[in-house]
Amino acid sequence: MAFTAEGSLLFQPYKIRGMQLQNRIVLPAMVTRLSGDDGFVNQAISDRYLSFARGEPGLMVVEAMGVHDAKSGPLLRASRDDFVPGLRELVNGIHATGPSKVAAQIIHFLKISRSGWRQKIQDLSRDEITAVIEFYGAAAGRIRDAGFDAVELHMAHAYTLSSFLSRMNNRHDEFGGRSIENRLRVPSLVLKRVREVVGDDYPVGIRYDGEEAIKDGYSVADSSMMAVRFAGLGADWISISAGGKFEDAIHHKGEPLYPYTGYSGDRCMPSSGYPDGLNVYMSDAIRAALRARGLETPTVATGKIRTPELAESVLQSGRADLIGIARQLLADPMWPKKVREGRADTVVPCVYNNVCKALDERFHRVRCTLWRKHDLHAPDAPDDTTPPAWPEGAAVTASPKDGRVHLEWTPAEDDGGVYGYMVLRSEDGTDWKHVDSARGVAHRFEDPSALGGLAYSYRIVAYDMAGNRSQPLGPVAITLPGV
Ligand SMILES: Cc1cc2nc3c(=O)[nH]c(=O)nc-3n(C[C@H](O)[C@H](O)[C@H](O)COP(=O)(O)O)c2cc1C
Ligand code: SF4
């Protein structure tokens, strides 16, 4: 059924420890690699977050920022007081732009080297563990001083606190071993310390993996109990990610190990080959465990939730309280506003090809492949309601090429320029699926996912900067030769 914002849960306000969200859409943390190695907020960082703010998600979580000064690639920092003025300016700008509340995600990570070596939590002395706890407390205090509405503690993926939670935690003291209680000890002490520093009136969220997605890693049986602990200690939301571990990462010679290169990386940032909403079951199980113990802490489900229909059904069925949408908001930051205003058909859809992830891996500035070639941010949605049009005689052709369907079409026309083309495919001529998109400069596309022997039809839809879509061009029919 088509989604309408009125009467939906997605656009109902939600209150977290006094912080009123105007809708239930969360922008989860996404590092941008836009800061310099110095870790200060700069113009590019500010522009990126103001563009998200214009879309009006309920809560924006600003990308992971280091609680300590250890070397890494470009990464924001909250490790010293001199970072506070820049962070304050960022928050003020976001608040001045729209109604979104804004949290900062804070992270501690261990050392890695280009040789593939990495420091492990087993290497940490007791003093170093105490320092980690203090780093988190001090950084959370700075986040509050900078005016953020909340702080989120990064306990997910391959980083320090996640490694304590992990079943791969090989410490033999009270901070490790096979017991979940011991694995929870350092993350719990961090949460307690942060609470002491920020006070009882300040929202503190946790983000961690619902499933490690590695051999012998933990799944929802453990992560449900972790949520019970965090909620019991007063965490204000439980944001659930998945995977992103060093254990199955692939080492490229001479490069630092990137924890999203293995299967667990796929589960963290699932590409087009995975089904929509694949990680929702984790939020479902964790939320059920909380509610069974009378704990009302909200859960945030994330992972290829791209349509308002899916988001709403997750909320309606009680599988999550808030919906995290990361890459789709990178592709089109105006998603929440467009959907609320009944303009979901002007959303520029993410194609989940993970070009943004590949840029992150190489410490390059994170951008979306759908944006115009040299743009550092999504284009500002112009006040334009006129869609692109096809010139007289426009056509789309399809031919077989090396086991793929090769499509070519006549360029569309638009006053402000064509921003991109959506490739739609159908087997029955009625149910049209968006298989991929091409940038406005491209007028051809090769579909590698067509099965020989099946009859397909293709249509092309052009869209402009505001997301206005043309009438479909086509259809054109083709059947690839089978075996
Ligand atoms: C480029 C990039 C950077 C990311 N950085 C972070 C981060 O700093 N902290 C975090 O918890 N998750 C990070 N993530 C994971 C996202 O928050 C999100 O969980 C993931 O992309 C799946 O959601 P999606 O399918 O809606 O994109 C990042 C993802 C991407 C693509
Ligand atoms: S680069 Fe690809 S996966 Fe990343 S936001 Fe853009 S379309 Fe989505």
Describe this structure in words.
The structure is a single chain. The protein has helices at 43-55, 84-97, 126-145, 160-165, 180-198, 220-232, 263-268, 280-292, 308-316, 327-331, 335-340, 355-361, and strands at residues 14-16, 19-21, 25-27, 59-66, 76-77, 101-107, 150-155, 204-211, 237-242, 299-302, 322-324, 396-401, 404-409, 418-426, 433-439, 444-447, 455-464, 473-479. It is α/β, with parallel strands linked by helices. The longest helix is centred in the N-terminal third of the chain and has 20 residues, at 126-145. It has two domains: 14-361, TIM Barrel (Alpha-Beta Barrel), CATH 3.20.20; 396-479, Immunoglobulins (Immunoglobulin-like). Helix content is 27%, strand content 21%. Strand 8 (204-211), helix 6 and strand 9 (237-242) form a beta-alpha-beta unit. The strands form four sheets. It has an eight-stranded parallel beta barrel with strand order 3-4-6-7-8-9-10-11, surrounded by seven helices. A four-stranded antiparallel sheet has the order 15-14-17-18, with no helix packed on it. It has a three-stranded antiparallel sheet with strand order 12-13-16, with no helix packed on it. Iron/sulfur cluster binds next to helix 10 and helix 12.
